Amino acid sequence: MARNKIALIGSGMIGGTLAHLAGLKELGDIVLFDIAEGTPQGKALDIAQSGPVEGFDARLSGANDYSAIEGADVCIVTAGVPRKPGMSRDDLLGINLKVMEAVGAGIKQYAPNAFVICITNPLDAMVWALQKFSGLPKTHVVGMAGVLDSARFRHFLATEFDVSVEDVTAFVLGGHGDTMVPLVRYSTVAGIPLPDLVKMGWTSQEKLDAIVQRTRDGGAEIVGLLKTGSAYYAPAASAIEMAESFLKDKKRVLPAAAALTGQYGLDDLYVGVPVVIGAGGVERVVEITLDGEEKAQFEKSVGSVKGLMDACRGIAPSL
Ligand code: TXD
Q: How large is the ipTM?
């Protein structure tokens, strides 16, 4: 059986980390693409040279021409400009929308059968635009944010409870932004929901509220510390988990920015919801029942995603 082909569109901090992880996990051969000359080639060579030490077999190459992504099974898109301190995700919108137009055209021409995972911010609007620019089926264009936001939530919870991260599950819904909705009721330690853990005295409601807020601000906290860019280790690991679920038909249930076609009473919109990812791409959108407060928060988050979509339409009327 031939190896899978993974195309990484954007070879910056996340792109390079994606290539490294895809190599270590032997997910397939890897093509790094970027407009910056030398960057994808240099990273490909460097990571390929780690192969003999780590013991993985993967062909790695770098390119500045879209023809190199031809026939890719998975495309992971990080092309664009990252956030600088003080800059909101929305400030990025104008620049990155133009990038999505070029990336969409490249994927349409050379990898129309790929499963596409978009990471570029502002995420929910960029993945929506990328699906339209590329013309690929909605089942095959998805955005990565929920796995990362949930991972941040899980990390903070595991630290608070002093238990393994493996036993903490968490659910984050909504857009990838300050309005994201960490669902406390559906987040657990070994199946015990967080509200029960508060009753059991494992933590206080105040501490839990602070963790929820820290999760919402998770990206900004790292931007503030790094000063020269945004997070990349955890974002890359999160996208790889999604790619692996597709390539191995694992049918993982993961939160992702998915195209809604009537679910949650919404249409023609990408927003973070639980989905099943398998060989058919997004095989199912899981529609959970939200209580009053959760619904209000989700609607607020959807409202901010819609605002970004309107801003995109203002720039690119074809959307
Ligand atoms: O949860 C999430 N979705 C995110 C999103 C978490 C963290 C960061 N998130 C966003 O990912 C971030 O706001 C950025 O929009 C992307 C990529 O972040 P990264 O840290 O990898 O940014 P870099 O290092 O600046 O890399 C971007 C690369 C860089 O090498 C540019 O030369 C390249 O993108 N670039 C392009 N490549 C191809 N085609 C075009 N047009 C292009 N323009 C820039």
A: 0.99
